[in-house]
């Protein structure tokens, strides 16, 4: 009986840790894509899926949607397979945010991942 209770607690903690690990990988991927998009915009080049996908490697199972409005960009990161994170994440000109706090305006230009 005690072993069953302890194992149930342990499994719950393990699953919570995995979801937080997925969140960390999504945040890292968002920062990587943001750096690449900033570099492309600084060079005056168009932000295109082909140029970013050859320079950016995302964590397997993650995807990043790119929204662009002139020289402003907004990114939405999410887990698309395997263990899900606790939520989607948004990266814009003000930094990293939980997706329930802010969403990106406009349509998706393209999605990496």
Automatic annotation (TrEMBL):
Superkingdom of source: Bacteria
Name of this chain's protein: Prepilin-type cleavage/methylation protein
